[in-house]
Amino acid sequence: MKTLTKQNHMLESRSTLYGAVSALFSDPESEKFAMLLTPKIQGCVLDACFQLEELENNQEITLSKSFQKLMAKLNISQIENIRSEFVDVFGHTLSKKIAPYALEHLKNSDVFFLTQKLADLNGFYQAFGMKVESIERADHISTQTEFISFLLLKELIAQKDELDEEKEVCEKAFYDFCHDHFSDWAKMFAGNLTEKVDGEFFRLAGIFLQGFLKSEVIYSSSFNKSENALLD
Question: Is 101 helix (H, G, I), strand (E, B) or coil?
Answer without folding.
Answer: strand
